[in-house]
Amino acid sequence: MALTWAKVLTDIEPFHGVILYAFIDPVVVAIGLWMGWHADQKGKLILAGLLAGLAGTVTGFVADLLGLGWFEGGFLFGGAHAFFRVLAGYLWAMLGYAAQKFKS
To answer: What is the pLDDT of residue 64?
Structure first.
């Protein structure tokens, strides 16, 4: 059985909202871009992504505990939201790194 994009997208359908929220989470975006901008080596982008994802996840949990969370229902998927936030943080860090290199 061949793996197609249609099958992949169908299999991850419950996670579409989680993936979208991960990429537009303001904490993940801000920290990923900032750390990517200030990274002086490509290897540090992995750490920037991990930190951005962790900060976004912790901020989301704290906001949810205080009743301020905008990420309603995302925690029902277990660790998937954290994984996608780390991935999003890494991609935002790569974008920040590329923008800094392009500028100089």
So the answer is: 79
